[in-house]
Amino acid sequence: MIFMKHKGYYLLFVGLVLIDQVTKQIFMSSFDLGQSIIVNPFLSWTYLQNTGAAFSFLAGGGIIQQSFLLIVSILVSIWIVFWSQRTPSIHRQKLLGQFMLLSGAVGNLIDRAQHGFVVDFIDVHVNSFYWPVFNLADSFIFLGVVFIIFERQSTGK
């Protein structure tokens, strides 16, 4: 079976997707849209619905744009699975990055398929600078890319 090659990484994937989805459900059921609660001077919980891609790029494009983003998310997720299956087990950091990337992609894919938008709630800010609100899946994507980039630099592949 295709998923047996990197079984531990698939278990990590399932765990990360579950954590992502549970946190999103907490915010959807506990917050009103746009509601924000200050946690500390650098962090707030702010419930938003992102109908676009990263940083709300392409937001508000309607059903055609939502369908396009959903299809792209599905294709990228399938590509990551095939890419990770071709990665030898000795490349642990690269595999960790690939599965974190997959976890984030699938976490946001579930939102798009289920709601037509991605749930965002992590609001980082310093003084008057506000980073775009994001979620755990976005963090997994970012960390996955970092692991892959640094693995490539360390091995030269």
Describe the structure.
This protein has helices at 7-30, 62-85, 92-115, 136-155; strands at residues 36-40, 43-50, 118-126, 129-130. The chain has 157 residues and is an alpha+beta fold. The chain has one domain (48-157). The chain has a 4-stranded antiparallel β-sheet with strand order 1-2-3-4. β1 (36-40) and β2 (43-50) form a beta hairpin. The model has no long low-confidence stretch (mean pLDDT 88).
Per DSSP, the total helix count is 4
Strand order in space, largest sheet: 1-2-3-4
| Proportion of residues in helical segments | 55-70%
State the end-to-end CA separation: 27 Å
- Quickly count the domains: 1
The unreliable regions are: none
Radius of gyration: 17 Å
- SS class: alpha+beta
CA-based shape = globular
Tally of strands: 4
Indicate the mean pLDDT: 88
Order of helices and strands: HEEHHEEH
* Biggest sheet architecture: 4 strands, antiparallel
Which strand-content bin applies to the residues?
Answer: 15-25%
Q: Characteristics of this structure?
A:
157 residues, globular, 4 strands
